[in-house]
Amino acid sequence: MSSKISYTSGIYKITNILTGRAYVGSSSDVDKRLMCHIRKLKDNKHQNKDLQKDFNQLGEGGFLFQLIELVLDKALLFNRESYYILKEKQKPYNQGVICVPIDLTEDDTLRFLKGLVFLDNCWSWKSARFVNNAGQHLIPARVSYWLFKGPFDVSLNVAHICGFDKCTNPAHLYTSSLSETIYKFKNTRVW
Ligand SMILES: [Zn+2]
């Protein structure tokens, strides 16, 4: 087993026990990330103003700090984070990365197509996130799938048959449930 997965990689949630409002995040080292959140909150230096405000009122004991899902494949972290953010009944403290490219205007589409980078067989996109005109942060692979192959069930992951995490070539993309994806990766990758 490689050292890559010796940390707890996954999705975490910081829940306001009083109101139920949550902050959902992902990290390849959840323990360390949660400690970092707690330290910033205690120092009154957290970047999320709403969360900081509630923490100042309630203190550490007013919040629940939890790991909610183990995600061994880092490429799936943002997909799972978005899944949980979208699932929240109450508006979360953070917006996170939205997986659903619901607001693709003509201008968005044009900008996305211009930013595609064509490699040998795989494609990529010029940066890790595509920000549309509506201000949503989108994962390029999901935008590509949406544009070229059509809308998909947002609870699914967009995975790659080529194993290139950043691939945006629609021919290499498929939608999949998490367990199925991990099974496929286990059979194509050395951990
Ligand atoms: Zn590819």
Topology:
Elements (H helix, E strand, L loop, with lengths): L9 E7 L5 E6 L2 H13 L6 H10 L4 E8 L6 H11 L18 H9 L1 E3 L4 E3 L4 E2 L5 E2 L1 H10 L7 E4 L12 E4 L1 H11 L3
Antiparallel strand pairs: 1-2, 1-3, 4-5, 6-7, 8-9
Bound molecules: zinc ion (ZN).
Describe the model.
- The protein is an alpha+beta fold.
- It folds into two domains: 3-87, GIY-YIG endonuclease (3-Layer(aba) Sandwich), CATH 3.40.1440.10; 106-188, no CATH class.
- It has six helices and nine strands, in the order ββααβααββββαββα.
- It has helices at residues 30-42, 49-58, 77-87, 106-114, 140-149, 178-188, and strands spanning 10-16, 22-27, 63-70, 116-118, 123-125, 130-131, 137-138, 157-160, 173-176.
- The radius of gyration is 18 Å and the shape is elongated.
- The structure holds zinc ion.
Q: Can you give the helix content as a percent range?
A: 25-40%
CATH class division of the largest domain? Alpha Beta
Q: Please tally the helical runs, counting DSSP H or I stretches of 4 or more residues.
A: 6
Biggest sheet: strand arrangement? 2-1-3
Ions, cofactors and other bound molecules? zinc ion
**Average pLDDT value?**
83
Look at the helices and sheets and give the structural class: alpha+beta
Distance between the termini: 6 Å
Write down the Rg.
Answer: 18 Å
Order of helices and strands: EEHHEHHEEEEHEEH
In the CATH scheme, what's the topology name of the largest domain?
A: GIY-YIG endonuclease
**Overall number of domains:** 2
| CATH homology superfamily name of the largest domain | GIY-YIG endonuclease
Low-confidence spans: 1-5, 186-191
Number of strands: 9
User: Major sheet, described briefly?
Assistant: 3 strands, antiparallel
Strand content: 15-25%
Q: Which second-level CATH architecture of the largest domain applies?
A: 3-Layer(aba) Sandwich
Shape: elongated
